[in-house]
Amino acid sequence: MPKIGQYFTAGSWLVKPGKESEFIAAWESFAKWTGSTQVGAGTGHLLQDSTNPRSFLSFGPWEKSESIDRWRQETEFQAFVGTARELCDDIQPMTLNLVAIAHAKGSAAR
């Protein structure tokens, strides 16, 4: 369960027309590498806009900001960014801190 103050990385991706499947495959491979090799990385998620299939949002939790900094310096990270630049018209990376949690009705607040 996420906690207030937890770090997340996120990205907004506008993929070039016709490159959606290629982007998904590249992102999935990169996310699997991240999850299996990077200390402090949580599960990555990739969402596709249901009204604009070229638009994606990715996000994943991290234990600490230092882990994010080390991850972004890895050769594999740089290689993925290069691939993403070839596949995307726009990329907006973010580092975020969780500041609020809203629980669904009927779920226990923690």
Number of domains as seen in the coordinates: 1
Strand content: 25-35%
Helix-and-strand structural type: alpha+beta
H-E string: EHEEHHE
Shape: globular
What's the alpha carbon Rg, rounded to whole Å?
Answer: 15 Å
CATH architecture: 2-Layer Sandwich
Q: How would a crystallographer describe the biggest sheet?
A: 4 strands, antiparallel
Average pLDDT confidence is 95
What's the CATH first level? Alpha Beta
Kindly list the characteristics that best describe this protein:
single chain; 110 residues; alpha+beta; Alpha-Beta Plaits
What's the arrangement of secondary structure elements?
Blueprint: E1 7-15, H1 20-37, E2 45-48, E3 55-62, H2 65-73, H3 75-87, E4 88-97
Antiparallel strand pairs: 1-3, 1-4, 2-3
General description of the model:
This protein is an alpha+beta fold. The protein has one domain: Alpha-Beta Plaits (2-Layer Sandwich), CATH 3.30.70.100. Helices cover 36% and strands 28% of the residues. It has 3 helices and 4 strands; from the N terminus they run βαββααβ. It has helices spanning 20-37, 65-73, 75-87; strands spanning 7-15, 45-48, 55-62, 88-97. Strands 2-3-1-4 form a 4-stranded antiparallel β-sheet. A hairpin with a 6-residue loop joins β2 and β3. α1 (20-37) packs antiparallel against α3 (75-87). The longest helix has 18 residues, at 20-37. The protein is globular and about 40 Å long.
What does this entry show, briefly?
The chain has a single domain, classed as Alpha-Beta Plaits, CATH 3.30.70.100. It contains three helices and four strands. The longest helix has 18 residues.
